[in-house]
Amino acid sequence: MILLLLSSLWNVQANGKKVRTGNRSDAIIIPSAVIHYARPNLYFSEGRYAGPADIWNPKKGFLVQSIDPESYNLNFPTTGANFLFFDLVISGDFAELTWEPVTHEGITARMKLMPGIHSWVHDSSFVIRVMLTGPDARNQWDNPHPNPIAKPKLPQTFELVGRDRYGIEVVKYGFVLKQWFVVRDAHLPFRTRTYSDHLAWCNNIGYQMPRVRDLTNAVTKFGPSVGDNPSSPGNHYMRHIDAGLSSEWGYLFIYTIGGIGDAAGFLHTYYWTSDVAGHEQFIVDLSDGSIGSLHPKTEAGVACVSNLKP
């Protein structure tokens, strides 16, 4: 708690009305809170999957890297997709704070107080759940010639602010989204398609087929290094910020459990990339970020991307 003493001449805003303090000193108690972690799912988060200790805690998630708006780009996440979500792990007095949604380029971050218990963590304390929603193309999944959809101009900075009942800022968290992914065929029965089919579909909606580095920082012994940096020590992702979709979010199928209509839709395991592996295309397993390859006339899933990593 922060105790704010007001002189007799101060007016304050309380419950929407101006209040004069009179000839005395009054006090307003302002709650205090500190955000320690931004926590995506914690499957495949320990051991060989764990990132550097100053960035990743296998039990808690990504450590806050910066509270300076000039360097919010250091924080998780830099990638997003419709219905992906993460938790802000906070200490202090935050249960009564209000959080206004933040929208940029058709992408919205909505905050809600929720118990921290989930399938990947057993924590009875409360957290602020951050849900991302934005462009998708689920009404065109089966259309081989879909129409273009909204494509956000990225990067965009999102600043999430928790305020007390007087509207005073208590705590905030910022991140910079650099890429937005759109999943295809996230429905049952399970559906996969050839590389050329998915490539044309991505192009038609105005997005691109991702490269390996857009999806993972894994390292494979087959062919040149195609994953993002900093590189993982093996053919699996290493949890890291701004190192590929799965490196940030973890086992992506987990975000789909709970209902197709209100979930991220990463039903598939293997996802096409535009990187060539001899006579095949590299694919990425979005459960553990590992890299493989398939003949382009076989079938896999796709997550089209708004823009490629530089």
Fraction of residues in β-strands: 25-35%
- Cα gyration radius (Å): 22 Å
Rough shape?
Answer: globular
Strand order of the largest sheet: 6-7-5-9-13-12-11
Mean of pLDDT: 88
Largest sheet: 7 strands, antiparallel
In terms of quaternary structure, the protein is single chain
Structural overview:
This protein is mainly beta and 310 residues long. The protein has 3 helices and 20 strands. It has helices at 195-204, 212-215, 245-249, and strands spanning 2-6, 11-14, 17-20, 26-30, 33-39, 56-57, 61-63, 79-81, 85-92, 98-99, 102-104, 107-115, 126-133, 156-163, 169-177, 179-183, 270-277, 280-285, 291-294, 303-305. The strands form 6 sheets. The chain has a 7-stranded antiparallel β-sheet with strand order 6-7-5-9-13-12-11, with no helix packed on it. Strands 8-16-20 form a 3-stranded mixed β-sheet, with no helix packed on it. Strands 10-14-15 form a 3-stranded antiparallel β-sheet, with no helix packed on it. The protein is globular. 41% of the residues are buried.
Spell out the key features of this protein.
310 residues; mainly beta; Mannose-Binding Protein A, Chain A; 3 domains; seven-stranded antiparallel β-sheet; three-stranded mixed β-sheet; 3 helices; 6% helix; globular; disordered N terminus
Concise overview:
The protein is mostly beta strands. The protein is 6% helix and 34% strand.
List strands and helices in order, with pairings.
Layout: E1 2-6, E2 11-14, E3 17-20, E4 26-30, E5 33-39, E6 56-57, E7 61-63, E8 79-81, E9 85-92, E10 98-99, E11 102-104, E12 107-115, E13 126-133, E14 156-163, E15 169-177, E16 179-183, H1 195-204, H2 212-215, H3 245-249, E17 270-277, E18 280-285, E19 291-294, E20 303-305
Parallel strand pairs: 8-16
Antiparallel strand pairs: 1-4, 2-3, 5-7, 5-9, 6-7, 9-13, 10-14, 11-12, 12-13, 14-15, 16-20, 17-18, 18-19
